[in-house]
Structures are given as structure tokens and as C-alpha cells.
Design brief:
With about 240 residues, the chain is α/β, with parallel strands linked by helices. The protein is built from 9 helices and 8 strands. It is globular, with a radius of gyration of 17 Å.
């Protein structure tokens, strides 16, 4: 199969790319394993409703960016409470892994002490890119060390998150420098290297995904946070209910 060099154009249809992956999985009759990084309960609600029937999912809760500690605990508690009665989780036996909370990992990753200007970066800027990269690297390493077929994150469901950045980081972590162009601006990645997880292309906000997460939040009375998570987004004018 011929793959083309990755271009710098930002016109990929990541949702269509995901639909193509799922179509192949459905035809295979198998359910590959997926390590899914989750930032909170509301964002993971729709993503699990969508993916859990096609993948054997383990949710990885790793978010050292969240400030303060009480906010981190509240978001984790909300996620865990939802999963005790959320049908897609129960019916598909979704597991949850919670990694230790160490905010220093976040501050080191964004390098704010050496580059204080990074604190003033707008949403979707370089600070956010470094934060995405930190959490996706952890997800990739966990997936690789535990034999998962795929890894992904719920982050792209938010309108305030850059799906292009997120998918580019995922592809870079797997060493993907080529892809195959498909109809409708969809792309197909080469198979993962032996022993490595494949990046699951996605843009979960598409096809009403973000709207559906709002509906599920209302249905299950979920706490929707008023800022992205870090101290800098808390102090900024980021729109509420991200």
C-alpha cells in the first residue's frame, strides 16, 4: 500500500479518518484494546458512548496540569462516580487507571520557570501544546508498556482544543511521517510497529460530539468545570463549561 509524505496543510478530516478505522474494525469482528486518556467525566462521556462498543477500553486519568488539588480531586471523583452507573462503561467493562498527581511534572513540561512568558500564552498556544504533549507521551508510554493496540485522548472533544495539534503529537509519538490520503480529506496511517500502539485519529467534537457531551452532562447531572484545568486558564477569560 502506498503512503504519501505528510504535508503541513491543516485540512484533514480526522473524524472521517476515525470512521474509516472503526469501519475496518467492525468488519474484522474483533475489538482491539484502547488506552484512552481522559481529562474529566463530561468529556469522556460521549467518547465512551461512541467507542466502547468497538474497543476494549482502559481509561487513563493523568492530569497533573489541573489546579488546584481540590479541583483535580473533584474532576476525578465526578469521573469515577459517573462510571459506576454509565451504561457504556458497565456494559463494555471499561477499566480506569489513575496515575499519581504531581503538578511539578506539568510545570516542568511547560518550562514556565525558564520561559515565564509561556504563562501568558492564549488557549491553543504553545503552553497548551506542551501540556497536550506531556499527557499524550504518558498515555503512549502506558499503552506501549501494557500491550495496547491503540492510544488516544478525549481532549479533542472540546471546541477550545486544537485537534490538529493533538493528532500531530499522537502521530509524532508513533514515528508516523507518512499517511495515505483518502476521500473526503480523510487519512490512513501505516500499521504500528511491532510492540507499539497505534495512534487513533480523532476529532470528537465533530458530528455533534460536543453537543452530545452537553446532553449527557445534563442527563447525569455532571459537574462541568469553568476553566480548562491549569492555573493560567483559571486566571484567564477562557469561556465557561469547557
Amino acid at each position: 500500500m502506498e503512503y504519501l509524505q505528510k504535508s503541513s496543510e491543516r485540512n484533514h478530516n480526522y473524524q472521517k479518518s476515525l470512521e474509516n478505522v472503526i469501519s475496518k474494525i467492525k468488519k474484522s469482528g474483533e475489538r482491539p484494546s484502547l488506552c484512552l486518556h481522559a481529562c474529566c467525566g463530561p468529556c469522556s462521556s460521549y467518547v465512551l458512548e461512541y467507542l466502547a462498543k468497538y474497543f476494549v477500553v482502559t481509561v487513563l486519568y493523568y492530569n497533573p496540569n489541573i489546579y488546584p488539588a481540590a479541583e483535580y480531586e473533584r474532576r476525578l471523583s465526578e469521573l469515577q462516580t459517573l462510571y459506576t452507573h454509565f451504561p457504556p462503561v458497565l456494559e463494555n467493562r471499561v477499566k480506569v487507571v489513575v496515575l499519581p498527581y504531581d503538578p511539578e511534572e506539568y510545570y516542568s513540561a511547560i518550562n514556565v520557570r525558564n520561559e515565564p512568558f509561556i504563562a501568558e500564552e492564549p488557549e491553543k498556544g504553545e503552553r497548551c501544546h506542551r501540556c497536550y504533549e506531556l499527557r499524550l507521551k504518558c498515555t503512549y508510554n502506558y499503552a506501549k508498556n501494557n500491550g495496547f493496540d491503540y492510544f488516544c485522548t478525549t481532549l479533542s472533544i472540546s471546541p477550545f482544543k486544537d485537534a490538529e495539534q493533538i493528532n500531530s503529537i499522537g502521530m509524532e509519538l508513533t514515528g508516523t511521517t507518512e499517511y495515505r490520503s483518502l476521500k473526503g480529506n480523510a487519512i490512513e496511517l501505516p500499521p504500528a510497529k511491532d510492540g507499539d500502539p497505534a495512534w487513533l485519529i480523532s476529532d470528537f467534537k465533530k458530528n455533534g460530539g460536543f453537543r452530545r457531551s452537553l446532553e449527557l452532562s445534563e442527563e447525569y447531572n455532571l459537574f462541568r468545570q469553568e476553566y480548562c484545568g491549569c492555573v493560567y486558564s483559571k486566571e484567564s477569560k477562557t469561556p465557561k463549561n469547557v
